[in-house]
Amino acid sequence: MLLDYYNQDMIDESNHALSPSGTYFVPDDMSRLDYIEFIREKVPLTDLTEVFGLHDNADITSAINSTDNILNTALSLQPRATSSGGKTQDEILGDTC
Hints:
This protein is mainly alpha-helical.
């Protein structure tokens, strides 16, 4: 895997691609301010799975796991027993809101 990032082609080839889609590539030599602008304009804000050598389905799996964690946390905050006043859980939540 390191041979993709540490090799002579990175230096010799103009805009050497670091990912299959070409989203990540080694820019040509430029000034410090140009590198900063390159990062702002060309580097995605959220890392694509391809940069880690993962399939696009890894994004889907990550989103599903995050959603499950959020919903499980929300469900764990719900009371398990009904109140003694005879109100349903939805009525209690409505009163609280």
